[in-house]
Fold:
Amino acid sequence: MGLFGKKKKKKKDNNVAIMMENVTKSYSKGVPALDGISVTVKKGEFVFIVGDSGSGKSTFIKLLMRELKPTKGRVVVQGEDLGAMKNRKIPKFRRNIGIVFQDFRLLNDRNVYENVAFAQRIVQAPAKDMKKNVTNALTVVGLAGKYKAKTSQLSGGEQQRVAVARALVNNPPILLADEPTGNLDPKNSWEIMQLLDKINRERKTTILVVTHNREIVNAMKKRVITIRKGIVISDEEEGGYIDED
Ligand code: ADP
Ligand code: MG
Structure:
């Protein structure tokens, strides 16, 4: 390091939601699932993550939730260095993140209201705010009228909207979705993506969506990060779906 290299920038960048620096994740010996990835996402961005099955997309998401730790490199989310984070800090950190999965992961013996309220109970939201917050979240996803329904009686599209309400009820700065339309028909897929877009625009929530939905990615003109075999092969503003070979 030379004389001028010493002034290393240590200042936190408050505009950054997510930063991965040379991140490698290996599950075992052999080919790493992610191999030296560097990605920065600014607060308020909407980003699609695309790539073949097995390319490392879910691993990427799990690193951001601190479900996994990087083998090498740095993962910083909302200013927190996740590799250095103590386990006991994880629950508090997770309040920064709402998550939506392909398979909804609802409590199917509970009604719609209880599924969303569950997320509020985990963060010990004051009882007086809970009803208002849950009702607001259900209104955003267009399901306020179905709050009493058992989730098992809902269509797939409705179930995913409950999951989106649950992900946003605590108003997290970041929302992650791992193939949220993977089990939905085209019409419901569009509705979910447009809902995520609305949440991004209205709440300024930083949103990352892993998807295989070529038509939607091409139509929405968002930033698109393409991962292939654990490496970012493309990262474009107003990008499109890159054909694999
Ligand atoms: P994608 O979500 O893009 O399909 P994943 O991140 O799930 O990809 O997987 C990337 C690679 O890591 C794949 O080769 C997969 O088999 C491997 N992998 C994922 N999870 C595990 C695990 N828990 N243990 C071992 N290997 C895993
Ligand atoms: Mg996956």
